[in-house]
Amino acid sequence: MGQEDVESGVDFCTILGYTFYCLQSEKMNLREIIPRLFILILLFVLLLVFGCSTPSWFPIKAGPSYKAKMKELLDKEVVMIDQEEYVKILNPKASDGKDQPTYLYVPVNEYLSKKETFTAITSPVEGVKKESSVTPTKASPSLLEEETLALSPPKLAVSRLKKKVLITYFDDRTTQGEEVFGDWVAEKLMNEVNRRTLQVLFADYQTVKEFFEKKGIDLKDLETPKGLQLLNEVFGVHALVAGELTGPYVFATKKTKDQEATASAIIKIDMRLVDTFTGKTLKNFSANNPIIAAKEKGSFSEEKAKVKAIDVTIANLGRSLGKELDGMDWFCRIAKVEGEDVYMNAGKLTGLQVGDVMEVFRPGGSGEQGEVKDKIRISAFIGIDASMGRLIQGKNPDVNDILKLAKSEGT
Predict the structure, then answer these.
(1) Is residue 60 domain-resident?
(2) Which of 99, 128, 156 is the last residue of a domain?
(3) In this structure, are residues 101 and 94 in contact, taking their beta carbons and an 8 Å threshold?
(4) pLDDT of residue 21
(5) Structurally, how many domains does the chain consist of?
(6) Domain of 214?
(7) Which residue from 40, 49, 190, 237 has the fewest beta carbons nearer than 10 Å?
(8) pLDDT tens across 257-301, in order?
(9) Cα(79)–Cα(149) distance, integer angstroms
(10) CB distance 200 to 240 below 8 Å
(11) Cα separations (Å) of 86 from 70, 148, 152?
């Protein structure tokens, strides 16, 4: 027990002694004792709250695990990235090649569990305070080019390459002819999927529509083998999403003197996910909202109920669709070959980078990829989302050959 704890104990004993003396005094009556006793208790509580140190007998203390964690990181360089703490370490593979970064950042918990395998960077400031060990630091542009995040295994599995998806306008089977929701539902579904995954790039429906009209092909033929082949080879689309909606149906009560107008709505959406390369339907989806979830009151309650019903249903579909799209393999196609220059139907928007090495596969039968025949290194981006490169291995690539990011490049 420290000196401050002893002093706190003495103060407490003094207060109790004085209280006992007051109670025993014959000169004090009950009306005098009660106010003074209340004041003494209040002073004692304030003494505990505002005391400079916590006595050893006080029930609330800082956890030892937190103190141990801060002690381990006291002399390490720790930064805050996306509201998570990372420890800066030397990259053990930095000497393997120029493409390897000098430093890595690992999450604090991962560092503490495997600290024997990491070489942490010691903070350059001596006597660093606990608060400074987690203060965000700004790196110079040159430093950012040399350093990268060492994320946990689940995050490493996330590809930087985006799959192209076309969502068609939904076939609107609503009973009210003047109201059309098909295009609006498609747009809301795209926004919901974009919110849930970073691995999707949506193709523009109007651009696809104009292309098919010039070719004299009806949009109803999008899901035919010919339509899917054009989507894949011309636009680089990996998956087509199409479907139908039924509703929304509204159940409303009129406004009365004692009650506001109320309305509830329900809608059902059926859709399918089609692989444009194989022509197979990967999955069918169906969802509708609970009617109680789309209940609204007051002015424009019917319109608000319809919007609510669509939002709830789209949220359920977007979650499932996002997971399916994340699980699809990425590839692109050779669009054109001119001498040594090879043009591809994917580029910067997709996530490709200048210097990436692409493996060339000859398409197999029944929508399967064949054997590796060539390798191409990307040299430049062209247009909205296209790129060009040159052969570094093999010869004679063909238009519509399949391209995948080489395994050594990481996906």
Answers:
(1) no
(2) 156
(3) yes
(4) 56
(5) 4
(6) 163-326
(7) 49
(8) 778 889 999 999 999 999 999 999 999 999 999 988 899 998 889
(9) 11
(10) no
(11) 13, 11, 11
Query: Cβ–Cβ contacts within 10 Å for residue 129, how many?
Result: 9
Give the pair of three-digit tokens for residue 376. Answer: 């191409």
Please name which of 78, 68, 86 lies closest in space to residue 152, comparing C-alpha atoms: 86
Q: Is the same domain home to 172 and 264?
A: yes
Q: Tens digits of per-residue pLDDT, 35-85?
A: 666 777 777 777 665 554 444 444 444 444 444 555 666 667 776 665 567
The answer to whether 268 touches 287, Cβ cutoff 8 Å, is yes
- Range of lowest pLDDT (114-123, 354-363, 383-392, 401-410): 114-123
Q: At what angle do helices 205-214 and 225-235 cross, to 10 degrees?
A: 120
Beta strands in 276-395 (DSSP E): 281-288, 296-297, 332-338, 341-344, 357-363, 369-382, 386-393
Q: Is residue 286 part of a domain?
A: yes
Q: Which of 259, 291, 326 is the last residue of a domain?
A: 326
pTM over 0.85: no
Residue 79: partners with Cβ closer than 8 Å, 6 or more residues away: 85, 86, 88, 105, 136, 137
Residue 56 lies in a domain: no
Q: Is residue 355 part of a domain?
A: yes
SS3 assignment, position 341: strand
Q: Are residues 135 and 180 in the same domain?
A: no
